[in-house]
Write a structure and sequence with these properties.
Length: about 180
């Protein structure tokens, strides 16, 4: 199967003297002049497509180019259909968070992680709270232990300016549960 990231040169756009030719059934036809290869492609009502421009001499194939493009687009659509998009959800808290607020934020984090999204919790310090970062660290440690059954820490507590961030990723669910 040929996966191409740039537009292919086809028919008269191939401006090389000689090419290595592959027939419509995949058989090797050897090195031939480009105009002869074009004539062979026109004889069977197909296109001459340059599939490996970097080779010496370049490799060209006789094929139905429109059908080839359709198959490539179909495979790309199928690949996009099966991919899972993972979002990063962020929750901000402060060091003097009340118990109920903490529980609400924890439930939000669990919901995000159960959906398969990654989560980021940011502990924000304001003013004099910077001199008591240990209070914030204790709360973040509590969050890590409360989420231990549904998530694992992807990137540990890192301080950035006036905040500390912890990144979580969903824990892989084992298939041996009863």
């Amino acid at each position: 199967m040929i996966f191409i990231s740039r537009p292919l040169r086809i028919n008269q756009r191939i401006r090389i003297k000689e090419v290595r030719l592959i027939g419509p059934d995949g058989e090797q036809m050897g090195v031939v002049a480009t105009r002869d290869a074009l004539q062979k492609a026109q004889d069977v009502s197909l296109d001459l497509v340059e599939v490996a421009a970097g080779a010496n001499p370049p490799v060209c194939r006789i094929m139905d180019y429109s059908k080839f493009k359709y198959e490539q687009e179909k495979q790309a659509r199928e690949a996009r259909k099966h991919q899972k998009i993972v979002h990063l959800k962020e929750i901000k808290i402060k060091p003097h968070i009340e118990e109920h607020d903490y529980q609400v934020k924890l439930q939000h984090l669990k919901r995000f992680l159960s959906r398969g999204d990654k989560a980021k919790i940011t502990m924000v310090f304001r003013g004099r709270e910077m001199s008591h970062q240990e209070i914030g660290r204790k709360i973040l440690d509590r969050v890590v232990s409360d989420l231990a059954d549904v998530a694992e820490v992807e990137k540990g507590p890192t301080r950035e300016g006036r905040s500390i961030q912890v990144y979580f990723m969903p824990r892989a669910v084992s298939k041996t549960k009863k």
